[in-house]
Amino acid sequence: MSVFEHRSYDDHEHVAFCHDRETGLNAIIAIHNTCLGNAMGGCRMVNYRSADEALNDVLRLSRGMTYKSAAANLPLGGGKSVILGDPREHKTKDMLRAMGRFVDSLNGRYVVAEDSGMGEADMRVMAEQTPHVVGYAKHDGERGDPAPATAYGVFLGLRTAVAHRYKTSDIRDMRVAIQGMGNVGYRLAKLLHEAGAQLLVSDIFRDNTDRARREFGATVVPPEQIFNQDVEVISPCALGAVIDDRVLNQLRAGVIAGSANNQLAYDDIGNALKAKSILYAPDYVINAGGIIDVYYQTRGLPYAQAQRHMTKCISSTLTEVFRRAASSDQSTNVIADQVARSRFDPDYHPINDAA
Ligand code: NAD
Predict the structure, then answer these.
(1) Do 60 and 163 fall within a single domain?
(2) Are 183 and 135 in contact (CB under 8 A)?
(3) Cys-Cys crosslink for 86: which of 16, 47, 131, 332, Cβ 3.0 to 4.6 Å?
């Protein structure tokens, strides 16, 4: 099968397969669409089981970035990259420098940031080779890591979803179950705790959940039980494809609002969620805080300005999605795709499509 026939190809503009013999780097850079601007998106390092799994992941993620930036009203296109390998075992500085040179060879059409398996220190090493790196602090005291902004955006979006589903914007005493107490999940838990929510949390690392129990009085739940808790809100902040048929049958929450990318195992499950009156806040709309902040960082603009953009954009786009989904009796993920696509594709007219 050629890449052009790949199930996730979706008219990608550019897919680069990168190999560096000296360092053993195997990577893929995918640029989905640059109609609104140069592509920006994270670089993830994962021990994929196969090259096809890596290709599928990078294609789905880079497409998601096009939709995310468009939904967030940013003048950016969508792209993403993956390095194949275990970040704890295989990552070396020379490998990251080689990756930086591949990014540089695209002359800015793709701008790289951090993602799973990558940190600010890795971005700094890539930046030795290319100016097209964002999302890391260049000097002490400068902001870089987008996770705080992502958590803030999810917090705003979660409140918007709660207001729509439960007709109250007050999340005091609401029960929220968060999967994943990592960079985003922990910060989201802090914001929710400060707003008075009751937290149930899970993580595969005990020190992460212990910290949430200590600091926020969170109830710790075993990872395999997080989705069947008696809560108002489920917040997936760990992995993609977590909302599948098995989880669907367990869910008791009325709202799904979390940071993880590609939360739905397949698109049609959005209809099943709707049938169960579970309001799904589409992932790329609610988790856009990080890319908004990174964009403002590249323009040298303060966090307060990025926060204003998030406050305005995430809530209003979600409200538009929820309203149109309700009036057209369609799932929120389908409507989000229509809203985002109509912002980056001048030839796309969703109303005519529906007809
Ligand atoms: P992270 O790696 O810091 O945190 C993920 C956490 O999930 C880790 O603590 C990990 O131990 C935990 N985890 C893994 N498998 C689990 C399981 N089965 N059950 C419970 N916990 C599990 O990542 P992050 O930066 O916090 O991002 C979280 C999610 O949000 C990811 O899907 C990421 O792609 C997405 N996202 C992050 C950002 C950002 O700015 N960091 C932006 C947009 C989207």
Answers:
(1) no
(2) no
(3) 47
- CATH number of the domain that 165 lies in? 3.40.50.720
Q: Is 312 a catalytic residue?
A: no
Give yes or no: residues 279 and 157 share one domain.
yes
214 and 331 inside one domain? yes
Contact at 8 Å (CB) between 264 and 270? yes
**pLDDT for res 135:** 87
pTM reported for the whole predicted model: 0.94
**Ligand 1 proximal residues by C-beta, below 6 Å:** 116, 146-147, 150, 179-185, 202-205, 208, 223, 237-239, 259-261, 287, 290
Out of 115, 145, 204, mutate this one to test ligand 1's pocket (max ligand atoms within 8 Å of CB): namely: 204
In total, how many domains does the chain have? Answer: 2
SS3 318: helix
Question: Which tokens go with 214?
Answer: 């200590």
Nearest to 274 by CA among 332, 225, 219, 217: 332
How crowded is residue 323: how many other Cβ atoms within 10 Å of its Cβ?
12
Q: Is the dihedral angle over the CA atoms 232, 176, 289, 283 positive or is it negative? A: negative
DSSP of 6-47: -TT-TT-SEEEEEEETTTTEEEEEEEEE-SSSSEEEEEEEE-
Q: Which residues contact 89 (CB under 8 A, 6 or more apart)?
A: none
**What string of DSSP letters covers 137-190?**
-SSTT----SHHHHHHHHHHHHHHHHHHHHS----TT-EEEEE--SHHHHHHHH
Range of the domain at 162: 147-288+317-341
pLDDT tens by residue, 204-244: 999 999 999 999 999 999 999 999 999 999 999 998 899 99
